[in-house]
Write a structure and sequence with these properties.
Oligomer: heterodimer
Radius of gyration of chain A: 22 Å
CATH topology of chain A: MetI-like fold
Radius of gyration of chain B: 20 Å
Number of helices of chain A: 12
Largest sheet of chain A: none
CATH class of chain A: Mainly Alpha
CATH architecture of chain A: Orthogonal Bundle
Number of strands of chain B: 12
Low-confidence stretches of chain B: none
Strand order of the largest sheet of chain B: 6-7-8-3-9-10-12-11
Strand content of chain A: under 5%
Strand content of chain B: 25-35%
Shape of chain B: globular
Order of helices and strands of chain A: HHHHHHHHHHHH
Mean pLDDT of chain B: 86
Helix content of chain A: over 70%
């Protein structure tokens, strides 16, 4: 019992429960395939993302071009594969920014409370009051388009969400006896927050961030769609949709496949997020 | 060892909780002393101010609403109430440490027990993480847990085992004073005796002074040298264990003994003290115990009793004994 017992950390338990959830594993598989194709895009993609073949413009799916070509004769499959790079980068880095800033603010707010809490959370309310896409549009408009600015814009928009989640978990955890016990052994506030509170608050953050990556990818695609995100020839899914819009009557494949790529990615992330929420739910322990 | 060397003395300590509904005098004008290697029992009902006293010594009273209104807590010749936050952090866990009531909630669920013991060692001693873990393993062994279990998480231990881990954390830096806040209340009876025995042995081994907070006179009989009985924030009787059990004086103390079932007598019912603890925001005037006191006199509702020394070292706060 001892030998087996030693391996049973709380995260292993979560993994064990997650493995039992088929939908979550499908989601995880989708995400892993995406990550894989993003990393090895150079090897997988049959063509370069900006290889133009003007003789083969606007062709439907065929053996040469599985998903057809666009108005410059570029291979859509290759562009979608390269596009996963951009989308995943935006998704993860934007969420990373949001967690770093929002999480820190939320933790400070929840731990110290009182006036500091009020000031921080009211600032967050101001951010929340502005619709996310409008906020992103105005930030991109101010900073200019491009990968980095889109990530910042999307990230800033989701800061308040993380601040609120982290704050509320810190509020409950801070009252627990083991926090008082940590104080009683002489741990500093910084140590208590980073070593005792944050690890116990991770569950909701993880769930929110998987769902948040999906949201960020969608926002970035949305920004590109309205022409504020990535400029051509960057193979971005939203931008591809936007170009395809002009040809949608006669060449459905130009919009359908990038759209499907977005849909499947969001679907995978949501499946994984839901599965993680169930696996991390303390009430379902068994 | 010099038995009379003072480790801790509490002088005229008052701690209040100031809330919108009113001020709660959780500790009123308390005077206590603990000598080196000695165990003081702090006995009282829920809400009598025992835990507040303990947190006050640790300077862990949540402020606000808590406030130390007056008095001093002198530990090894220095007043803890004058110390800065950094100085207090140095003392907590190192010179004074605390065992909490419920071992189910006082350990961090996501950190292996070994690391939790090592944490206090790293915080207070100049060692690296590996050495700290080695010492943590030694401490585990001392409290009777196989050191192989060092990497396990709290949920893999039973309640009694967890309390042993908590004790290991508390004693890891060999503190001078150990405050045990009802360490056995959350445990079942058979485990209680084991844990008490363990604490007693370790306390002797390290020559630690101890404040044992409890509402169980049986625990007092087992481990304490001196006892302070608390009622509604006041220490109403303060004496050594022997005279408490042989000649208790305060009517409340007598009532406590009266409510313990006797093995010899064939009693149909227990004899509890009549009435309930007073509402903490609305403590009766005069002696706080007078509405429940079987020996109440007219003066009791008017005059606040002072400490009276009925025999050497035996203090009672009761007007029956005041001149």
């Amino acid at each position: 019992m001892n030998k087996q017992g030693q391996k049973r950390g709380p995260w292993r338990e979560v993994w064990r429960r997650l493995k039992q959830n088929k939908a979550a594993m499908v989601g995880l598989a989708i995400i892993l395939i995406l990550v894989f194709s993003a990393i090895f895009a150079d090897f997988i993609a049959p063509y370069g993302y900006d290889d133009q073949d003007l003789k083969a413009r606007l062709q439907g799916p065929s053996m040469q071009h599985f998903l057809g070509t666009d108005n410059f004769g570029r291979d859509i499959l290759s562009r979608i594969i390269y596009g996963s790079r951009v989308s995943l980068q935006v998704g993860f880095i934007a969420v990373g920014i949001a967690i770093a800033v929002g999480g820190t603010l939320g933790a400070i707010s929840g731990y110290y409370g009182k006036r500091l809490d009020n000031v921080i959370m009211r600032l967050m309310d101001v951010l929340l009051a502005i619709p996310g896409i409008l906020l992103a549009i105005s930030i991109v408009a101010a900073l200019g388009s491009g990968l980095q600015n889109v990530m910042i814009a999307v990230g800033i928009g989701s800061i308040p969400g993380y601040a609120r989640i982290v704050r509320s978990s810190v509020l409950t955890i801070r009252e627990q006896e083991f926090i008082e016990a940590a104080r009683a052994v002489g741990a500093s506030d910084f140590r208590i927050i980073t070593k005792h509170i944050i690890p116990n608050a991770l569950a909701p953050i993880i769930v929110q961030s998987t769902l948040g990556v999906a949201g960020a990818i969608l926002s970035a695609a949305g920004l590109s769609f309205i022409g504020l995100g990535f400029q051509p020839p960057t193979p971005e899914w939203g931008a591809m949709l936007s170009t395809g819009r002009n040809f949608i009557r006669d060449h459905w494949h130009m919009t359908a496949f990038p759209g499907l790529a977005i849909m499947i990615t969001i679907f995978g992330l949501n499946l994984l997020g839901d599965g993680l929420r169930d696996a991390l739910d303390p009430r379902l322990k068994n | 060892m010099d038995k009379n060397k003072k480790m801790l003395s509490i002088n005229n300590l008052s701690i209040h909780y100031i809330t919108e509904e009113g001020t709660v005098a959780a500790v009123q004008d308390m005077n206590l002393e603990v000598a080196e290697g000695e165990t003081l029992g702090l006995v009282g009902e829920t809400g009598a101010g025992k835990t507040t006293t303990a947190l006050g010594i640790m300077r862990l009273i949540p402020e606000p609403p808590g406030k130390i209104v007056q008095g001093e807590i002198v530990f090894q010749g220095k007043n803890l109430l004058d110390m800065t936050t950094e100085q207090m952090r140095e003392i907590r866990g190192n010179k004074i440490s605390m065992i909490f009531q419920d071992p189910m909630t006082s350990l961090n669920p996501v950190i292996p027990v070994g690391e939790q013991i090592a944490e206090v060692i790293i915080l207070h001693q100049n060692v690296n993480a590996r050495e700290a873990l080695e010492r943590a393993a030694e401490m585990l062994e001392k409290v009777g847990i196989p050191p192989e279990r060092i990497k396990e998480y709290p949920h893999q231990f039973s309640g009694g085992m967890r309390q042993r881990v908590v004790i290991a954390i508390a004693l890891a830096c060999n503190p001078k004073l150990l405050i045990a806040d009802e360490p056995t209340t959350a445990l079942d009876v058979t485990i209680q005796a084991q844990v008490l025995k363990l604490m007693n042995n370790l306390k002797k081994e390290f020559n630690t002074s101890m404040i044992m907070i409890t509402h169980d006179l049986g625990v007092v009989a087992e481990v304490c040298d001196k006892v302070a009985i608390m009622y509604a924030g006041n220490v109403i009787e303060y004496t050594d264990k022997k005279s408490l059990f042989t000649e208790p004086r305060h009517p409340y103390t007598l009532g406590l003994f009266g409510s313990i079932p006797s093995i010899e007598d064939d009693e149909e019912r227990l004899n509890p003290i009549k009435g309930l603890m007073p509402d903490p925001t609305n403590i009766p005037s005069g002696c706080p115990f007078h509405p429940r006191c079987p020996k109440v006199m007219e003066i009791c509702s008017e005059k606040v009793p002072k400490d009276t020394e009925v025999s050497k070292g035996h203090f009672v706060k009761c007007l029956l004994y005041e001149e």
